[in-house]
Amino acid sequence: MQAGIEEQSALYEKRIPIFPRAVKGRFRRFKWGVLILAYSVFFGLVWLPWPRHDGPSQAVMFDLVHRKFYIFGLVAYPQDLIVWLGLLLFIAAALLFFVTALVGRAFCGYFCFQTLWTDFFVWIENLIQGDRPKRVRLYKQPWNREKILKLGTTHFVWLLVSFWTAFTFAAYFTYAPELVRDFFTGQAHPAAYATVLILTLTTYVAAGLGREQICMYVCPYARFQSVMYDPETLVVTYDEKRGDGRMGRAPLRPGAKTREERRAKGYGDCIDCTLCVQVCPVGIDIRNGLQYPCISCGLCIDACDGVMDSIGFPRGLIRYDCEVNIKSPAPGKPHLHWKRLKVIGYGLAVVVMSALLVHSIANRSDLEQAVTQVRQPLYVVLSDGQIRNRYQIRLANRSDHAETYALGVRGIPAQAADFGNFQEVTVKPDQSILVQVSVKLPPEAAMRVESFEFTITPRSRPAEVHVSPARFYGPHS
Amino acid sequence: MSKEKLQSHAVQTTGHAWDGDLQEYNNPLPRWWVWAFYLTIVFALVYWVLYPAWPLGKGYTTGIAKVTYVNSKGETVTTHWNTRADLMAEMNAAAKAQKPYYDKIAALPLEQIAKDPELNSFVISAGKQLFGDNCAACHQAGGQGVVGLFPNLTDDDWLYGGTLEKIQETITYGRRGFMPAFGSVFTPEQIDQLANYVLSLSGEKVDAVKAQAGNALFHSMDAMCFYCHGDDAKGRQDVGAPNLTDKIWLWAKVPAADTPEKKVEAVKTVITQGLGKGVMPAWKDRLKPEQIKLLAVYVHELGGGK
Ligand code: SF4
Ligand code: SF4
């Protein structure tokens, strides 16, 4: 009865511990490759020096305080980043759909942070506690010195990795070497400590304790990806016809050793060694068919290929294949079905948006200008009867060198505009300057002219004339 | 009913039974909910310790969180956390950020301030603030003034001179404008003639005969108008006498008048009653010299200066 209550009020089913077995093979190697690449980028990039005449000498840094984002040679500002991030998100989403339509949850299995960190954590676990059988034994044995020591060390190392992950993340937002010094001398910003603390805990919980549960219960992507699957999508599948045969699976035993013997008896090729189940990081049996928790990591393929090799059967009992092929009476070689409207559509979207992004970054102007009219008062009558309007021009120099801008007008006589001391103004890099302009027109002209343009020309690129429209108000407009 | 029967449900009950078979289910709250509840209690406890919380008769518990700021008297004050002290601390930080600019302004001559693009940008933004706090009450937010009361600072006419130095002097020491009342000196007809003459100087439509008589009167030793406004009626900035030949009016409400008669009336009013209200207060005791300097440059740029 007590158990009944537990079941009713518990938020989730109690986790059944999984002890994935280590495995060797193509997909495992690919996963290591991705992991090493991703880790070198994430953990290394933040320490890459990048000389800048001002600003931090760190290749990638998101300076939230000054609202400037340094990405190698590029200095981005929030207003750029909004557009770029929008495009980037769109590209990422389209790419994800594209890949999912082609090869299922490839992102989940090889590139997702959760997968990468969990993989690494399991590797640590494996290193300290030994492979699956040893870990299972350790789990079952009562608490003693060995168990406390091994589990304690594992959790300690996990926490260290989590901490360094969190610290690295924080270091992207401030000058990293400075953060190291300030952080360990207790002088860093409280936000840095909070970030590191929270991320350490979340990394530890997600990769160390949660693992496949994050993929199964937390990750929203796991829930809607099935929408993107088609019968042509390549997924990790068990070839049931070949593996189960007429009479089902059977272990290797005398009389059922060679393929011919097994054929004759009606057994399939699967020798029921359950290795594919033991290596699975989400703890499922792929032989039961495609299941939503499967993250397409391909480790079961590696495991089974190894088994097939050792007993001299052909590989590919578990393989990447599509539903159409597997179900067809005469299955052909699995291949990518890319000639589909959906796939081509997603592909095109990725290409177009990427081109837009590159174009947007390449054509970003180094100058940001804004012309605002002084509206208090809207216009002034001068002693000689002329009408004067006043404007404020803000010039922000986003290039990495001081630039001199020449100011001018179009649509009204040049002498009508008075730029004060700033017909030409030099703006330091990353600085912005306000210039006041007064425009004077005789009464007749003031009645005629409604709008004109300001021109701003950088001295170093005279061909690049920036034009800002302005209105002119008089007593009659 | 027997006890066994009561408890044969899958759900546990509190064990009580009323009226024979009326029972109460014992459904515990979800665990996450309970933990969230405990967490709010912990949060409240931490909050009480850190921040002002409990009323105690006339006082209250202040909490151990502290804010340190410098008050208006220049004393460093450390007090328990409160939003006002927090604001003071932020204002101090802002003032500190402005200080290097003010230091530069204090050190440089006026012309240099107006020529330095960075300082000038600071003048435009900080000047707007300073002007809004101190000057806008009379001269209006944009410096456009009020005809008949406060001069327009955005035009190119300056009663006391529109150079940077003159503006600085005006703000520092203030001004007192005065014109005697001529109502008892002249006949209404003479005042009418004078008004016509004054309007003719700005190119307004007037009675030419009256204006000619007014011209004679203006330059006569009886009226002595020329003594302040000058022989050419272009005014004298050393005494703050306005230029009567331009199109700018401060005291006579000419721009608001739509007929020639009303315009004459407006000028006549000023000549008859004279003026004693052209007072600009001195700011030297209320603003720091560098603030006045900044304002001088700001105001100079409002009107394009002279
Ligand atoms: S079933 Fe295979 S591919 Fe799917 S998660 Fe498990 S090991 Fe990876
Ligand atoms: S690894 Fe291959 S042979 Fe072994 S149980 Fe899995 S499918 Fe069967």
TrEMBL record, chain A:
Residues 261-289 form the 4Fe-4S ferredoxin-type domain. Pfam families: Fer4_18, Fer4_5, FixG_C. PROSITE patterns: 4FE4S_FER_1, 4FE4S_FER_2. It comes from the Bacteria. The chain crosses the membrane at residues 30-50, 81-103, 156-175, 187-207, 343-362. InterPro entries: 4Fe4S_Fe-S-bd, 4Fe4S_Fe_S_CS, Cyt_c_oxidase_cbb3_FixG, Electron_Trans/Redox, FixG_C, Helical_ferredxn, Ig-like_fold. Keywords: 4Fe-4S, Electron transport, Iron, Iron-sulfur, Membrane, Metal-binding, Transmembrane, Transmembrane helix, Transport. This is Cytochrome c oxidase accessory protein CcoG. It comes from Thiobacter aerophilum.
TrEMBL record, chain B:
InterPro entries: CcoP_N, CcoP_N_sf, Cyt_c-like_dom, Cyt_c-like_dom_sf, Cyt_C_IC, Cyt_c_oxidase_cbb3_su3, Cytochrome_c_Oxidase_Subunit. Its cofactor is heme c. Pathway: Energy metabolism; oxidative phosphorylation. SUPFAM superfamilies: Cytochrome c (SSF46626). The chain crosses the membrane at residues 32-50. It comes from the Bacteria. This is Cbb3-type cytochrome c oxidase subunit. It is found in: Cell inner membrane. Binds 2 heme C groups per subunit. Belongs to the CcoP / FixP family. The lineage of its organism: Bacteria, Pseudomonadati, Pseudomonadota, Betaproteobacteria, Burkholderiales. Residues 122-202, 209-303 form the Cytochrome c domain. C-type cytochrome. Part of the cbb3-type cytochrome c oxidase complex. The keyword Transcription does not apply. The gene is ccoP. Its main location: membrane. The keyword Coiled coil does not apply. Component of the cbb3-type cytochrome c oxidase. Keywords: Cell inner membrane, Cell membrane, Electron transport, Heme, Hydrogen ion transport, Ion transport, Iron, Membrane, Metal-binding, Oxidoreductase, Repeat, Respiratory chain, Transmembrane, Transmembrane helix, Transport. PROSITE patterns: CYTC.
